[in-house]
Design goal:
The complex is a heterodimer of chains A (about 120) and B (about 110).
Chain A: E1 4-7, E2 10-13, E3 19-25, E4 31-37, E5 43-51, E6 54-57, E7 65-70, E8 73-78, E9 87-94, E10 106-107, E11 111-115
Parallel strand pairs in A: 2-11
Antiparallel strand pairs in A: 1-3, 3-8, 4-5, 4-9, 5-6, 7-8, 9-10, 9-11
Chain B: E1 9-13, E2 18-23, E3 33-38, E4 45-50, E5 55-56, E6 61-64, E7 70-75, E8 84-90, E9 104-109
The chains are: A mainly beta (about 120), B mainly beta (about 110).
């Protein structure tokens, strides 16, 4: 979905390096998410944010941190990258649902990260 | 925890209907069922979602059983471009995340 962009699209780095993946959206959504996908597996949630002042850990947050700089921007950082963080990373957004369980998420194109 | 159960793979002849089943026996009364698909390593693409009633849009139809413990995604006339991994997802009990599982790999055969 062109409304959700991720940079970089591909990144190769070395163990111990700090890496930042960026996500921007023009959909005007309040909610943003970071997922990772390992080969042959489904997506797993790393962090999510329901508004600029809200940050929550997901299923697999260890080794990651996030920053919600604005409604449209949500960054994922790997403070000290390790090889098992090699994966596809996806950003997603969704509108506020005012307490409803209806929550359609829209995904970016992904970032392929390789940690050597 | 596994929220949904899907067959790991299915084949479908081009032009025929593809029926993808999903079991979600522990779904709660206010949880929606969502379907997404992922082509190669692209970002997952939203297809359809529903709560109780059957739903249809330009991409697919969603049939939910009366007890809501299972559902079927129907692609009425499958094309080669529908070859993808299809994920059936229910909203978590905490209301904060989707559990994607491993999905069904659909191959449309010419």
């Amino acid at each position: 979905d062109a409304d959700v962009t991720q940079t970089p699209r591909n990144r190769i780095t070395k163990t111990g390096k700090r890496i930042m993946l960026e996500c921007s959206q023009t959909k005007g959504h309040d909610r943003m998410y970071w997922y990772r996908q390992d080969p042959g597996l489904g997506l797993r949630l790393i962090y999510y944010s329901f508004d600029v002042k809200d940050i929550n850990k997901g299923e697999i947050s260890d080794g990651y941190s996030v920053s919600r700089q604005a409604q449209a921007k949500f960054s994922l950082s790997l403070e000290s990258a390790i090889p098992n963080q090699t994966a596809l990373y996806f950003c997603a957004t969704s509108p506020s649902t005012s307490g409803s369980m209806e929550d359609t998420q829209y995904f970016g194109p992904g970032t392929r990260l390789t940690v050597l | 925890d596994a929220k949904t159960t899907q067959p790991p793979s299915m084949d479908c002849a081009e032009g025929r209907a593809a029926n993808l089943p999903c079991n979600h026996s522990t779904i709660s009364g206010n949880e929606y069922v969502y379907w997404y698909r992922q082509i190669h390593s692209q970002g997952p693409q939203y297809i359809i979602h529903g709560l109780k009633n059957n739903e249809t849009n330009e991409m697919a139809s969603l049939i939910i059983t009366e007890d809501r413990k299972s559902s079927t995604l129907i692609l009425p006339h499958a094309t080669l471009r529908d070859t993808a991994v299809y994920y059936c997802i229910v909203r978590s009990r905490t209301g904060n995340q989707f559990y994607f599982g491993t999905g069904t790999s659909l191959t449309v055969i010419p």
